[in-house]
Amino acid sequence: MTRARPKCCRTLPIALLLAAFAIVCGAAPFTRNPDEWSGRRQYAPDRDAEIDHLTLDVTPDFKRRTISAEAIVTFQPIAKPLDDLKLDAVDLDVQSVVSTEKIQAYQVMADHLVITFASAIPAGKEASVTIRYTAQPEKGLYFRTPEMGYDAGDEHLFTQGEAVDERYWYPSHDSPNEKFTTEMTCRVPSGMTVLSNGRLVSQTDDGGLTVFHWAQEKPQANYLVSLVAGYFKKVEDHYKDVPLAFYTPPSDIGEAPNSFRDTRDIMAFYEDEIGVPYPWAKYYQVVVQDFMAGGMENTSITTLTERTLFTGATENIRSSQGLVAHEMAHQWFGDLVTCKDWSQIWLNEGFATFYALLYDGHKNGRDSMLYGVFTTEQSIFARTNDVKPIVSRKFDDPDDLFNYLAYQKGSYVLWMLRSQLGPDLYRQCIRTYLERHKFGNVVTEDLAQVIEELSGRSYDQFFDQWVYHAHYPEIEARYSWDEKGKMAKISIRQNQKTTDDVLLFNFPLAIDFKTKDGTIERTITVKDATGDFYFALPSAPRIVRLDPNFAVLAKIDLRDIPPSMLYAQLEDAGDVAGRLVAIEKLKDLKGHEAVAKLSHALNHDAFYGVRVEAAKALES
Question: 3-state DSSP call for residue 23?
């Protein structure tokens, strides 16, 4: 899911996307500060019954903004006989409950429905309950009608279940640790379209209404169940045998091709990069009005904000690339494999954010991808109180966890893994992880286990310090050169405040010395609070680069570097990362020559990201 408030996705490639997409298009949090949470620990709920199938039959009343519905839940008790079936349900007006097993009674509580059976249902025996009800949902299902001020020609409804809002429009096990197949039937006025998960089984007429029947034949998590109904128009395409479509309200259809255009290429790239074929019957995207987020990756049918649409006149400053790439990546990471509980949400959001970054590199080149990594890193460093780990059970509401830790930091953890493993082994690990856990639930240990198995290396410390503990290394590095001894010295100090939540980090750090004789690459291991490292070189380096490819989430302040070396770094045409780092250092110098160098970069650098950062530096 991408979460957004203002106008969507800038601009060409991803750094105006991962700062932009991350902040503008939805990967940005809009939750409360973690310091405001109560600290109550939360876990996945028990599963007394295995839900096998959910059938929903929904008739919306667009004028009253209500629904009349029937839900059939097919299930089997797990491990022991089942006396009571408890389903999450909020503000549902239940008219009747019938079952294949005799019911003693049912109770409609404030936030759940409890069905008590006359005799306990044996473990493993299949049973079903049919619940008829009406609702005027406050959450989960949303109407857009003329009575609300919307154009009559654009009338529609849509659902949004993540994290725990499906319970407001149908009874369910509203947690990601259960998966089941689904069917959706919806009865709407003639001329309307109904979209849902999976494949369209039938479209028939019944008493003046059009009845659409959809079937999702592979298991999915509850929060991914989707219903969209209303007046829509579409553009279509296909990738191999996968139907692709992009739906909008009629008034927006002219802008649909702009946002749709990368869809097929993104799917082709992901199949090749991930190594697992697209797993669902179709891939539709549907734009709705006043969506509360940037996008939502419902299985086979993503919901998107209308803010992603743009005209050809904004070609050079608007793009849907990052949003479309993020939500499609979820079809593997989040939909095919799903976090077991919300504390593990980075396994959904971090992956989707990272694969949008990889696609940007594929489409727009490595420099653009590195700029995306740089802007991600800078957005993390901008946090003033970064004391929460990526995986934490201390939260009040699942929505609290949809923040920079799940998105930006989660993405950076994957970038570090790929940097350490190398692209080929990383791909093998991810393919194995998906194939092993497809249609199931995962926790971080499942990913770590695959990586250890295929790499032969222990990753306990890696995940402990980057995922289960907070923050990142704050490195003060000092450089000096001994001309007589032809020796470079790098002194390293970890300055982050260590606590029970923030560790002293242990990580490999690459160092490039660029001399007149060429580039000399070295790697050291940083593990102590302080350390001195010496390097014999044939001549004094023109440029010294610590972590030249942003392979470590570390805030590095390399000191005692003469301005001449920074100027050389800013002019190094083959090292966009180095130019970005040089700008960060030069903006603090403020001297006439530094301003002149930054101005030259602003006006003449070949890469737009360097020009952007030079402009920021001159403005500061």
Answer: helix
